[in-house]
Amino acid sequence: MKSVIVGRFALVAAICTLGACARAGTPADNGAASASAANSAWVNNGASACEKYLTPDVLAAILPNPAGLTQRIDGQSCHTGAIYISLIVADIDVFRQEVPRIVGTHPFAGVGDGAYWNAAGTSVAAVKGHTRGCHVSMIGAATKIQDEALAQKLGDICNKLFALP
Predict the structure, then answer these.
(1) Which residues contact 37 (CB under 8 A, 6 or more apart)?
(2) Does 14 score more than 60 pLDDT?
(3) E strand or H helix at 9, and its extent?
(4) Is the model's pLDDT at 1 over the cut of 60?
(5) 138: closest CA among 159, 160, 153?
(6) Nearest-angstrom CA–CA distance, 23 and 121
(7) Kind of pairing, strands 77-79 and 71-74?
(8) Which of 23-32, 122-131, 133-142 has the lowest mean pLDDT?
(9) How far is CA 74 from the centre of its chain?
(10) Sign (positive/negative) of CA torsion 5, 116, 89, 95?
(11) pLDDT of residue 120
(12) Where does the pLDDT of residue 107 fall: very low under 50, low under 70, confident under 90, or very high at 90 and above?
């Protein structure tokens, strides 16, 4: 389990390293303190996202054996053992610049302001505006659906999260 968590954090760190994380909170930002507080409040939705959005119906549509309790990993992430959700502060302008440089990505529409799924078809990264980033991934699980269909299901979860205040 520890290696899975470490791997998930490495993936989120890679997204940030590639430039998708916003540079909010610098001294030059007007209203940075209130924006930072709002961003933190939204990012904290990730801890309970699995409980709220990985319902039995959603899991049954994706997984052949959808058993698994939801668990919080930290203040911004959760998992079911097979599906992981993590929210970060991210910027759409930077995301759009970096996606073409990431090997194996397939951009697709309808999720946030920009999204891609990876070549293995088991991960979606999406960004909404200049503050919201969502990553939903499958780890070590067989799925009923693949590629674009799976990406859309995982992306739907991001859209629900993006709609939160």
Answers:
(1) none
(2) no
(3) helix 2-15
(4) no
(5) 153
(6) 29
(7) antiparallel
(8) 23-32
(9) 14
(10) positive
(11) 73
(12) very high
Place of tokens 């397939």: 106
pLDDT at residue 67, as a whole number: 72
CA-to-CA distance for 158 and 133, rounded, in angstroms?
9
What the block records as the tokens of 121 is: 């078809």
Q: Give the H or E element holding residue 114.
A: strand 114-118
Q: Position of tokens 């969502």?
A: 134
Burial pattern 59-91, b for ≥16 Cβ within 10 A else e, equals bebbbeebebebeebeebbbbbbbbbbbbbbbb
What separation in angstroms does the CA of 27 have from each of 23, 31, 154, 161? 11, 10, 36, 29
| pLDDT band (50, 70, 90) for residue 18 | very low
Res. 3: pLDDT tops 80: no
The tokens describing 94, both together, are 């930077």
> Six-digit token pair at 73?
């990993």
Cβ atoms of residues 121 and 94 within 8 Å: no
Residue length of the chain: 165
